[in-house]
Each structure stands twice: as C-alpha cells, then as structure tokens.
Amino acid sequence: MAGRGGRTAPKAVAARESQMTEGRIEYLIKEAREAGFDAAGGLDRSTVALYPDVRAACEVNRCGRFGKSWSCPPACGTLEECAARLGKYSAGLIVQTVGRLEDEFDAEGMDAAGRRHAESFRALSERLWGEFPDMLPVGTASCSLCGRCTWPDAPCRNPRGAFAPMEAYGMMVSEICRRNGLDYYHGKGTITFTACYFLE
Ligand code: SF4
User: Fold this and answer.
1) Pocket test for ligand 1, best of 122, 140, 148, 150 (most atoms within 8 A of CB)
2) SS3 state of residue 50
3) What does the pLDDT look like over 51-83, one tens digit per residue?
4) DSSP string, 122-134
5) Domain boundaries, the chain
6) Ligand 1 proximity of 177 Cβ (cutoff 6 Å)
7) How many Å apart are CA 51 and CA 94, to the nearest integer?
8) Which of 31, 36, 129, 197 has the fewest beta carbons under 10 Å from its own?
9) Which of 145, 151, 160, 163 to mutate to test the pocket of ligand 1 (most atoms within 8 A of CB)?
C-alpha cells in the first residue's frame, strides 16, 4: 500500500474489509464520549498503513522510552510482528482528547490534557474488554503505569493495561485521522492526543 511521501507498508500488512455497521460505530462513539473523550470515530483497518520510517523514529529516542518499557520498541516486537498482530482486525475506533491551551508554552495545560487522555483511555478499555475480549488497544505514549518498568528483567506487571503507542506500530497518526474523517488538528490554542482500538 503506497502512502504519503512514497512510503510503503510492509507486505505482511493485509486488511479484511470493515464489517462494522453505522449503528455499531455510533454506539462506540457514544461510549467513547461517556469515557471522557472529546472526539471519536470509526476506524477502518484498511486505512492503516505501517511505515518503517515512523517506527524507526522511535530509535532516535526523543521521548527517552526506547528500550525502557515493555510497551515500546524493541520489546513490543518488530514492525512485522506488529503487522501480524493487526492482521485479524477489520475495524475499530479512534479516540481523541482535545486540550485548550492558554498559549503555546502552556506546559501545565498540555500535561493536564495528556493525563485526561490516559484516564479516558483506561476507562474506555475497561468498558470495551467485556464486549471485545480480543481487542487490541494502541495508545498514545509509552506505558507509565509503574514507577519503574520491569523491562527487561521481569515480566510486565500488567500486560492488559500496557499499551504500545501508535508510532511504535509505525502508524502515521495524522494520516489515519484524515482517512477516517477525523480532524488531526483542532485549531489554534489546542493540543490533541489520539489513540485507537482495533476491535473486530
Ligand atoms: S505495566 Fe508496568 S511493567 Fe508493564 S509496560 Fe507498563 S510500566 Fe512496564
């Protein structure tokens, strides 16, 4: 699948046609809003390309989490392994938290929006596990559930709550939003956090 900038997804990525009905998507969007998200929309798996160069950016380690967490590379698996994990899904849900900032240096506002996003993601995960026991949540940032991650010395303390970020899967978040009809940028003075669930 060709993507923006001539990038190419690994051959292992193959998507089934989305089977989710409009009514089902509306129900999931309502659930997302009740969990605290500001925006949500259906996710068609066929719109999701995995880019080796997005994944390679993890190794630059600007966030400082490369090689520090079970949720991040290399522990979350190779791009091919991530692609294989996604192979059985056809549809899901994109969720967003939109924070309002006083100005572009409003670090407190950014942190508050990030915390709200993480709380909503955990809350919606809990609601969805019952209905979609095989779902795959893909988050926004490295897992920070524990003060210090056990990687690589001991197993993850909470594998069900440790979500790899979309970038670790090689996903270009802006592209996925655009292809599924969601805004990636919500205007001046805002910051947006995006995550998704692959459901069925
Ligand atoms: S739950 Fe704890 S051990 Fe598991 S990835 Fe998150 S921080 Fe690491």
Assistant:
1) 150
2) strand
3) 999 999 999 999 999 999 999 999 999 999 999
4) HHHHHHHHHH-TT
5) 4-198
6) no
7) 19
8) 129
9) 145
